[in-house]
Amino acid sequence: MATNDTAAEPRFTPQDLPYAYDALEPAISGETMHYHHDKHYAGYVAKLNELILDTPFAAQPLEDIILSADGAIFNNAAQAWNHEFFFEGLSPKPQKAPSGKLLEAVNRSFGSFDGLKTQMGQTAAGLFGSGWVWLAEDGDGKLVVVAEPNAGNPMCRGLKPLLAIDVWEHAYYIDYRNRRADAVAALWDIVDWRVVEERYAQK
Known about the structure:
The protein is α+β, with helices and mostly antiparallel strands. The chain contains eight helices and five strands. The strands form two sheets. A three-stranded antiparallel sheet has the order 4-3-5, with helices on both faces.
């Protein structure tokens, strides 16, 4: 999360996408990315800046806010972080499958890469309402798939996030209407496993 610590506000500023708005087509349209990034994500960042002004959260890093706040401050902080993490995990020229130590961990936890994709897809389809589906690592090094409603983030469970799937309707409704499962399936063409591997390697 980009910061501007020399001014009273805004404390946080939205990060630019690491690719063009239409670069992820046909999986995600340019129209969806404009709304998703410029309206929803940027809106969470703006609201967070408004809510933390003149509070003890005003000087805290974003992750610390997520781990210690609740209510509206938590919701907007987590949504800002979740969206940045989600956007950074996608690429128009991705590494399309895990390799090395991450692939070994995937095989141990899910049987195969296809097994992981199946579990994440089923979890995404089964999450009632809005939220996120995550691939995360627990304290024992095991990979787990967790569903978090609304702005939920696995960091709050002591897990290390590796990959996020946004299943809020604003992430897919323009392109897929109510076909959430199709939207999730299309993401596998643009998830960049190089980024996921870098996250996994970080201690």
